[in-house]
Design a protein that fits this description.
five-stranded antiparallel β-sheet; single chain; Neuraminidase; 31% strand; 5 helices
């Protein structure tokens, strides 16, 4: 199961307090999920029951998404959207969730012809097609064209096996990693040797499931973003370097607000993605006020977020790619991917020497990538796969850069959690492996 699919499916259920599986790839992922992908994973019963109000609402949302996606793909649509393959892949997922197998398969075949590396073989949203001969042939063709890549190696292991983490950052000055435990609703500190200590305990501040974490290098404080959980309280939360609560804020207006990943621009501004709300917020730390960003197109389950080195350009990842926003002019557009590649569905997104480094799930297969950008940051000049198709990308979500090396969590275990946040199979619990891959 893709990590971000599991995250959004699980946490949406926790948010809504029912069995509804609203995904938004995300996700883990960005971790980190596609809209309602889990609903298409089971065969239809012999007698179809009357849809519940929640199911009817989900169907309406899917159809609304389909309308937006098909408009983006329309020849009459003004230029600006740059990844047709990503839209086709998401459309296929949505049509399958509505029960239209033929339309879903036709869209996948159209996507495969673009040769961008989309691999639906292990994507849970496409499980109903696994026994279809044409689907199996499509998957085999993609995997022959895009074989596994193994360049990372194990950095260290955390023995505790029930943390179920999602967010990761590093305090480069202290050489200490900070990791969110989604299941235990706490933040831990980890040394380079894998030694773990609580930074914020589970029972300390009544936190909801924690996703993104970010270190403020100015004072070594920690900011985190939380999903709404059973109390419908998604927040930005700030701790000092000892883990003492300083402040906490929830976005205004109706929710749920599923805050996911965040980045600090300076001492005044934080940008944070709202995955289920399909929004990105600018939070003014001085005014203590949220403002929604106005972007060039509709977002689909935004997740990873990063800033250019000079802090003037914001990059936001969603299921269709990466949106670039110039913070000096507020103008935005899609980053144009390289040929035979896609920026769809990036969970952890990081800026490194004029490149993106990211943990990607949106092509259907987890992989760690590096995308070299053109000098203006508007398009990808070249793509490099750092890890794909191995145990080190079994269930990843996010990572952190230290000493020109990218550390990432290889096996978060998110797929082994049920909708109530409980472990599904105790026998599948395993120590948490951190992988590392050089960037130079």
């Amino acid at each position: 199961m893709q990590a971000i699919t599991a995250i959004t499916t699980l946490l949406a259920a926790l948010t809504l307090g029912n069995g509804t599986a609203i995904a938004g790839k995300t996700f883990t992922g960005d971790t980190s999920a596609k809209s309602l992908s889990q609903q298409g994973s089971a065969p239809a019963p012999a007698t179809t029951p009357t849809p519940t109000p929640s199911e009817l609402s989900n169907s309406a949302r899917l159809r609304e998404e389909i309308k937006v996606l098909e408009n983006l793909l329309s020849p009459a649509q003004p230029s600006g959207f740059s990844d047709r393959g990503a839209a086709l892949y998401l459309l296929a997922d949505n049509y399958l969730a509505l029960g239209d197998r033929a339309r879903a398969l036709a869209l996948l075949e159209e996507c495969a012809k673009l040769d961008e590396g989309f691999d639906p073989g292990d994507d849970p949203g496409f499980a109903p097609l696994k026994n279809d001969r044409a689907f199996r042939a499509l998957v085999a063709q993609v995997r022959q064209r895009y074989p596994s890549v193994h360049r990372a190696h194990l950095a260290f292991t955390v023995a505790q096996n029930d943390l179920i983490p999602e967010g990761l950052d590093v305090d480069a000055a202290k050489r200490v990693f900070y990791m969110s435990s989604m299941r235990l609703k706490k933040i831990v500190k980890i040394t380079e040797k894998g030694e773990v200590a609580d930074f914020v305990r589970s029972d300390q501040y009544d936190l909801m499931p924690i996703l993104g974490v970010h270190i403020d290098p100015a004072d070594h404080g920690v900011w985190c973003a939380t999903y709404p959980g059973v109390k419908n309280r998604g927040e930005l939360v700030h701790f000092d370097e000892q883990g003492q609560l300083l402040e906490r804020y929830s976005p205004p207006g109706p929710g749920p607000h599923s805050l996911n990943d965040l980045v600090l621009r300076d001492k005044r501004v934080i940008y944070v993605t709202d995955t289920q709300g399909n929004r990105v917020y600018r939070f003014d730390r001085s005014l203590r006020r949220f403002a929604e960003l106005k972007l060039s197109r509709r977002l689909f389950w935004p997740n990873g977020i990063t800033l250019s080195n000079d802090g003037n350009v914001l990059y936001i990842a969603d299921l269709l790619g990466v949106v670039r926003m110039d913070l000096r002019t507020n103008e935005s557009d899609d980053v144009i991917p390289a040929p035979h590649d896609s920026l769809a569905g990036i969970d952890g997104l990081y800026w490194y020497n004029g490149s993106f480094v990211g943990v990607q799930y949106g092509t259907g297969a987890n992989r760690v990538m590096r995308w070299k950008l053109t000098p203006d940051g508007r398009r990808v000049a070249s793509s490099e796969t750092l890890e794909s198709g191995t145990e080190l990308v079994k269930d990843p979500s996010t990572g952190a850069i230290l000493d020109d090396q990218f550390y990432f969590m290889a096996n978060t275990g998110i797929a082994n959690m049920d909708k109530g946040g409980n472990i599904v199979d105790e026998k599948k619990l395993e120590p948490l492996h951190f992988a590392i891959v050089p960037l130079k």
